[in-house]
Amino acid sequence: MMQWAIQLTAAVLASGALLLPAMSYSSEDGIFDQPITVHKSRTCRCCNAWIRHMRNEGFFNTSGKNENNLSQIKVKYGVKGPLQSCHTAVIDGYIIEGHVPASDIKRLLKERPNVVGLTAPGMPQHSPGMQPEGLPPKGYDVLSFDENGKVDVFQRY
Fold it and tell me: What is the span of the domain harbouring residue 61?
């Protein structure tokens, strides 16, 4: 009986069946599998903290790209002055400007509104990357913006 159990265990391990729960953890709809490129300054610690926030929230394929001229990046992606923050991220065709919580990005990717992206303008004090990890965001709005310059509140904190 014991030999049979050992052989079954070996067969299951060899087939990779025990890896299925870990692989399906990535998301309900493949959202977490999307790569995120974060254009940032080499010296910005809050940008690195936001990248950690995204990874901790399941966006494991988030990487930083140090840029010498972030203004050019913001122009390229249509992020106008009042909407700007310290970093610009790109995920699945959307622009994420600044310290937008991962929960808002998950919602964006699930709902897929006709917008260019989301922004948390400036550097809100109580936002992911600007406060200790795990605290809830508060005291600011996450905005959506489209290519015509229309801005709406996406989420209020």
Answer: 34-156
